Amino acid sequence: MVVADGNPIVWLSALAGDRVGLMPGSDLVRPLVTAAAAAGRKVSMLGATAEALAAASTRFAAEIPGYLPGVLIAPPMGFDPEGPAAREALAQIRDQGPGLCLIALGAPKQEKFAALGRSLAPETGFASVGAGVEFISGHQSRAPAFVRAMAMEWAWRALSAPRRLMPRYAACAAILPGEALRAWRQRR
């Protein structure tokens, strides 16, 4: 399942004549963990920091009845989502049996890891949640509701980590005009 994780996707879809609703991956974290708990499945997490993963797991245990912690893996900087360390992590996740794995690596690393996971750990559900784990753990602050309502969460996040996020958002903004033209042509 792929969701519209950002307002530019929503806007481009509307321009192409296909309206979709915004669904940030971070908004899916609690419902997915609650569903896994109800099904008696373990929840693993990969990404973020060891501290953030532990804090998120502790919070889930306190707030979600039936939560079963799985493997918590905080990969080192430069983690290759398709390399040997990724394969080792997937073996650990697979060996727990069917479950859920929240991936908090950021795009496109988390999507690459999930794609590899589909073949190496096929009984696991993978969810790319970006900063969702860090929001739950309290290691990052989510933009206030009024900022999100104005479609400015990207600016809030960029200001919170400018060295890391400004180049990423600038690269995305650079391709928007071409993508808008492509969406408009698709409509016709």
What does the secondary structure layout of this molecule look like, with pairings?
Elements (H helix, E strand, L loop, with lengths): L6 H9 L9 H14 L3 E6 L2 H14 L4 E6 L10 H11 L4 E6 L4 H12 L3 E5 L3 H6 L7 H5 L3 H8 L1 H26 L1
Parallel strand pairs: 1-2, 1-3, 3-4
Helix pairs in contact: 1-9, 4-5, 8-9
- Number of contiguous helices: 9
Q: Low-confidence stretches at least 5 residues in length (pLDDT < 50)?
A: none
Q: What is the overall pLDDT average? A: 94
Distance between the termini: 27 Å
Helical coverage, percent range? 55-70%
Order of helices and strands: HHEHEHEHEHHHH
Order of neighbouring strands in the sheet with most strands: 2-1-3-4
Report on the structure:
Keywords: Glycosyltransferase, Transferase. This is WecB/TagA/CpsF family glycosyltransferase. It comes from Pseudogemmobacter faecipullorum. InterPro entries: WecG_TagA_CpsF. This protein has 188 residues and is α/β, with parallel strands linked by helices. The chain has one domain (7-187). Helix content is 56%, strand content 12%. The protein contains 9 helices and 4 strands; from the N terminus they run ααβαβαβαβαααα. The chain has a 4-stranded parallel β-sheet, sandwiched between helices. α1 (7-15) runs parallel beside α9.
